[in-house]
Amino acid sequence: MRMDFESQVSPSVMASLAVIGVIAFAPCVLAEGMPAQTLKVDAGSFRCIRQMTPVRHFYVDNLTGQIDATLAAANAKSGAIYPPGSVVQLVPTEAMVKREKGFNPATGDWEFFDLDVSESATRIRARGFAEVNNRFAKNCFACHVPARDPWDFICESGHGCEPIPIDHTMTGALQRSDPRCGPAAAQAGDQWALWKLRAIVVVAWVRGLF
Q1: What is the DSSP code (8-state) at residue 90?
Q2: pLDDT value of residue 135
């Protein structure tokens, strides 16, 4: 004979069981359903590029303090997913920031930034995804897509990205002349490299007019 459990238990006992069930189940709900904490990223998140940690020809940082995890991803020979809070910069005026999980799955949760830098401050010119372009009028996200797997969208030689029209002498000169760092730490050839870079930017700008 089928027994109706609820009919055999008093209302007060049923209420107690319901409370226990909610308490027991709540941690699972929080663990699986709670959204990741939103990472605050503003102009103050970006500092002198040479105060960040160098990795080969670029620099990394982590806004949550987990720099060791970011470095582990940057140095993984077979590629790795960067942890939230990671900042990757090749030059002072461009940055990628790894946002909280689920922020934008299409970009691997990376947000792209176009920056203006001066002795006193950093200013965000543009931020986002497909709408952010570099100074050569190239779309940042489109440039990084070929390096999606297994490099987590980080472009380096051999990662599949289209080569940019500047070399390491130019990017190094830009890094050493970041005005937020104080006096430039110039090396031989930096002035000529920066002159060539300005010429390339002007040509790209003129071409964009036609």
Answers
A1: S
A2: 81
